[in-house]
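Supplementary notes for students who missed Thursday's class. We covered one full example, reproduced here. Read the sequence, then the structure, then the short commentary at the end.
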Amino acid sequence: MLIFELMNDGGPNSMQIRQHIFNFLLANEHKCVSLVSHFLKNDTKILYILDERNIIWGVLSVSVGGQILHCLESDSILPIVQEYFSYAKPQKLFSIIGEKKYTDAIAKIFLKLYGTVPKAVNEYSLMEYNQAAAEESLLANANDHKKQAFLSECEVFTCKDSDFDALFPIQKAYELEEVVIDKNSFNEKNSRILLRRSIQDGGVFGVKYNNRIIAKASINAKGEKCIQLGGIYTDTTLRNRGIATYLVKTLTQQFKKDGKTIVLFVKKVNVTAINVYRNCGFVPFTDYKINYY
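Structure (token representation):
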């Protein structure tokens, strides 16, 4: 086996190799939507591992900012990955993201080669929407008339630039609670830039009640056939009213009409959120892990 960097020189051979990699990623897309998104945008270095039969066993992306995304299919390719990073060390390492098994393996490689230790580690369940599970959940859960009355006055909408000022406090609260490692390191300027960009891309959704935004969700990554939901957050003063369930169910049905597979990942310790997603028809299918450096 050998590891190669995808060269985008526009030649016939380059196009053929790119299609070969794309086919591999499509077969595994539900567990690596962010990697597929970067591959489609052509905005990161793409590495692929090939055996003597021309079969791909793994793909990684390495960004300028030091984010490593991976989709690997065998422990046997790990020595090849280690050999590559022994002579092609990224200028910086920010995060390693993907299936837990291989995030751990790549982290061990960087520890062995460079003594690199993560500053923070988050473990998740990667979940996928399943229609049968959604229908079963609907039958098992009795309607709460009080919640239904409240939700009947709520509206799910696609956020626009004009919603930015009303939406940002929700986004900031989400990042402080769920994303940043050290709350003192929260960069409000960067947060504002990224939120505005996401809104302009049409990937942010809100829930409005009494003309006030009380919850939000976003498309974290968009692949060829898959959408990864994330950033799901409800105002702390209005929790336990079914708002997150209402939001996720509404978006899921919208994306299913477009023929998309919907996935999301949730912290394993967040039992409340896991139950919300189960009630929406999401089923865990693998462990997911992010190491931050």
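Commentary. The domain at 125-288 is CATH 3.40.630.30 (Aminopeptidase). DSSP finds ten helices and twelve strands in the chain. If anything here is unclear, bring it to office hours.
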